[in-house]
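Sample A.
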Amino acid sequence: MNTHSFRPKNKKSPRFYFICHFSPNFFLNALNISIQIWFQLTNTNIFRNIFSLSSVINKQVSTVQNTTRDPRRISISFHFITTMPRTYLSVVFFLLFLSLPLSSLSQPSHSVYNSFLKCFSMRTRTPQAQIAKNVFSPTNPSYTSVLRAYIRNARFNTSSTPKPTIIVTPRSYSHVSAAVLCSKPLNFVFKIRSGGHDYDGLSYVSDKPFFVLDMSNLRDVSVNIADQTAWISAGATLGEVYYKIWEKSRVHGFPAGICPTVGVGGHLSGGGYGNMVRKYGLSVDHLIDAKIVDVWGRVLDRRGMGEDLFWAISGGGGGSYGVVLGYKIKLVPVPKTVTVFRVEQYMDSGAVDMVHKWQYVGPKTDRNLFMRMLIQPVTRKKVKTVRASVVALFLGRADDVVSLLDKELPELALKKENCTEMTWMQSALWWDNDKNATETDPKVFLDRNLDSSSFGKRKSDYVAREIPRDGIESLFKKMIELGKIGLVFNPYGGRMAEIAEDATPFPHRNMLYKIQYSVNWKESSPEIEKGFLNQAKELHSFMTRFVSMSPRSAYLNYRDVDIGVNDQGKDSYKEGEVYGRMYFGKNFDRLVKIKTKVDPGNFFRNEQSIPTLPRKS
């Protein structure tokens, strides 16, 4: 902005000349703030003149906007004659300039993009032309493809879905630091996306102006078999991690999820679990080190960040404290041969008894055995019924698991012909629904392409005591009534039950099993979507009497905004406590203290982030 020139024509009517080289809305908002402040100081009639000035500006803005090619950034010139005493003028314009920073949020997206680009270029010491390859505004031809590349739920890939003002795809740690530091003054919501598997889209959607930091380019995986460790970057996928381990060793693995396109950053910062959870616990139970960019733009390792922050990002959600860059993990041994199997039963042929008995066996059997229970309403022979399927991984031979379950779960009626022996890597492919896992090239795990045409909703619960048989039967009938919503029971026990609830932020160690509510659909219709979302809510409500209480527990990585959201206002702590207790139990209090210490201004926030402690009045 140029300074004003002040040339009094006479003592009663000074003349002002302003040349404003910024958004007119920016100026008007600042002026209005100045007027409000001044009104508290005096009630003189000078405001008639000030509002006249505002009117003049509006007319000039309208004129220029009708003639300029770019109405988002224009120049205004105006003059104003007034009898206002110079002292008053000095105070008013002092207040005006004082208030300018307060109005910065009104800058249009183009101006915001240019400001961000200049800051980013300066901090990374990189030419703007080169930086533009990694910083995208809605006018960039690649913007839409970059945004949609990692949207895994079609519910958040519609024309009406809010879109980010800027997407940053960093290729170095310095890019991440610059993104944080250049975003802070703009006060936009700062979303961090690794693989885009947040079930409710909180890593790339907001109802407030927001940026997206897409970590997909930071995908390095470095495996050191000599010391059985690996550095895995936040933007890497689980499939890439498994493949890189397999390249170096056939007898090592890592206990994480079964979906190969899930991003490391979100998965591990939320706890992370998979089909070796009973043998080895959670993913975060095998963390050695980590790197993070904090709110001040510093790149910190475990020693630099301290044990409190390291603890927080080991299951407390990385998006609340900083940008997780990657983790150093400890690999685990796996046998050369493992066994997988899938057995199905229906409601009219023993499924109720099998599911009921499974509750007493699944969480307590040999820790080398993980038996997931899938429960789904289906139509069989033109009759609506429920199918119960046990999908399992056994870290050993088929003969051993058949013998084991013949004793512990005869209701399953497992036969050796139901089983397939394979390598651990092949089992990862099999769990990803690859029917030809023993013949498939593991390189398919390097493929990041995923069809996001499916709409979906997930919810979660935990079960501390077995559901009685009549409860299982009533559950089946309710699922038939609803028609589509399915359930996944994931057993705990084994190593999980041996780790303290406060060892990491994940508190649900002593539960028998976790429930995932799951519904997918293909139709793009608000009415259909509402119906399926209501199915999920209704079944979740039906299960209240059977699941954990005080609080009713939930799993962070099965994101569910139905249990509460945070508007980040004066009630932020109270709102955050609602979902925070469900996700983290008693560990919520420690997470809040850490958050308040490392990010006191609450820059890293989303609709379900950890809040800061309420300020003392």
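Sample B, a different protein:
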Amino acid sequence: MSENYKEIFEGVDENYVKSQLNAIFRTYIVPLATKKKNWLKGGPEVGTHKNKSKQPLVELLAFIFADKSRFEVLYKSLPKPVQEIFYMLTWEGAYEVGFLEERFNVKIIQKNSVVYGRLNAVLNRRYSLFLLENPEEPYYYMNNEKLSELHLYLPTPLRKHFRKYLPPPKGYYLQPLAALKEAEYVYENKDTILRDLPIYWEYLQNSGLKLSKTGLILKSSLKKMQQFCNIEEFFDEGDKNLQFLRTKLIAEFLQKTIPQKMPENSLEQLKEIFKMYGTNRTYSHLNALLFHLQGRKQIGTEFAPEIDVAPQFISLLSDFPVEKWVDIENIIQYALLRDMNLLPVTIRDASYNLYIYPDVDFSWSYSPRTYIDGDFYAEAILLPLMKGVFFLFAAFGLVNIAYNSPENDILRLRGMPYLSVFDGLKYVQLTPLGAYILGKSNEYKTNIRPEQADILLDEDRLILTLHGKDRVARMVLDQIAERIGEHYYKIDYNSFLKGCKTAKDIDQRIKMFKNKISSSLPPIWENFFKSVRARINPLEPCEMMLVYKLKADKELIALFVKDEVLKRNVLKAENHHILIEDFNFPTVKKRLQSYGYLVTKG
């Protein structure tokens, strides 16, 4: 038995019940075998009596499905609507019964009944090759009104084999455009990410970003980062959701993809970052890209886990031709027809937890809150996610994108012309840099050079001069030095130690100075850093010493001045404080008690 036949046999046996196999046998196989005598030659012997066992029926159907020529005879004999539905289910997956019945003007479910809350639906014999399912709720929650929401499908292992026999539909292959079509905006990074990435890293590590109570980066922090790092944005103007969009994507992504060991070269840094993206599962597509959805906090728990889709997106991008523009609609079809798992959350979990506040003209209910169920899961989650990922890839120079201002004619947020800020994406182009990052090419050369300034350390004073553009160096100096002129900085103990809390902080700051400013230090600078290290923790705590303050009692104060026992066992400090070594405390306590002072503490 070949592996091909074995897989098909198991697919039939595990998914079809005996009554359904009987229906297929009587409706299609017997009439066809009567007309075409040699069609089933060499196959299992199956009688025509009605009450046969399941096993020979499974063997017969697997025998037909395992051979392309035998399959084609069966397929071509199917009624036209059945044939078209078979093709759709093979390539596109499950469809709602109601949609198919309306589209082809047919009756797929012959009869049904609800017994003790459980739906019993019987397929019209013409559609016995297909299976029924409801991906959102078990059958016992169903009723007659929801019958059309049942889905018709073919078993996954069989679909895989049928795709070898049936020609692929339009969109199955990526079709590069001859030339880029019209779009409002075109974003091309042109390798500037290789110059800017070290700046982004340094900014995030040393300047930090302020978060709201809900854990989102504050707009004021994004604005500050965008201005300092001089980040080119996707949109020059627009509403608050479009402002600082590229900055937001960069900041959130880098915070979640920090490698344990960062390469020195920015090209290799970028490669390592996206390697982390594809493997570490810490980047949340739901929170970073689908922020038009409410209820996201409920996803990511053990009850409603977020599904990692990063490897699938890396795989999808790897299939792109280099430096060729591809229509986003073609990309979407390409992914769907290959059954790529790009769903970050199940339909069931989405329908219970995720919702939007749609514009009144685009609402399906009387409630202002609309949950994301199967009816528009694709429109509310899948499409925004796919488009958002390409904006993310564009932010790091892996792709170029062409896009319009976001608009959506199917679903919109209240008061907005769109559902997602990514709705306007039209075309995507994989860059040579992206091809290298993905491993499609073995080497990459760029003309982009990192920013570099001339830095001179004074040999007599802790003053340095900086000429040229080097935002990383300026960022470091802003933390540890005082700016005293356009190109001049002064360092002293106060400026250098500002923000340091531990010895490790000081060592990291000295290391940062040598890495980012200068590793060749004049003696005065070496001595300064040695002095800073030597002055760490000048105060040592004395664990054997007890500190007390005397009450404002003249007689008590006089005792500590005159009494020889107390004077021998106590050290005096300022402002009526005394220090007592712990082994002397019992003596002091007993002596005070002899004068009528009871000590209960210590």
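Observation for Sample B: The chain has four domains: 3-165, 185-437, 454-534, 545-594.
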